[in-house]
Amino acid sequence: MNQRITIMLDEEVIKKLRSLQAKQIKESSESVSFSKVINDCIVKSFK
């Protein structure tokens, strides 16, 4: 179950996440939400 959480991100972090999002959108035929990019990065950091 997804949960809505509010966080504050630095501008540089947002730019990097948006860049990742743009790259994923170009490589996929599906839409890629900003939340998905953030979630993927967090999950990856725990591995």
Keywords:
47 residues, mainly alpha, 0% strand
Can you describe this structure in just a few lines?
The protein has 47 residues and is mainly α. It contains 2 helices and no strands. It is globular and about 30 Å long.
If you had to describe this structure to a student in words, what would you say it looks like?
By secondary structure, this protein is mainly alpha-helical. It contains two helices and no strands. It has helices at residues 11-27, 34-45. The longest helix is centred in the middle third of the chain and has 17 residues, at 11-27. The two termini are 21 Å apart. The model has no long low-confidence stretch (mean pLDDT 95).
Q: Characterize the quaternary organization of these chains.
A: single chain
Spatial gap, N to C terminus: 21 Å
Total beta strand runs: 0
Secondary-structure element order, as H and E? HH
Radius of gyration: 11 Å
Strand content: under 5%
Global outline: globular
Spans where pLDDT lies below 50 across 5 or more residues: none
Please give the structural blueprint:
Elements lengths: L10 H17 L6 H12 L2
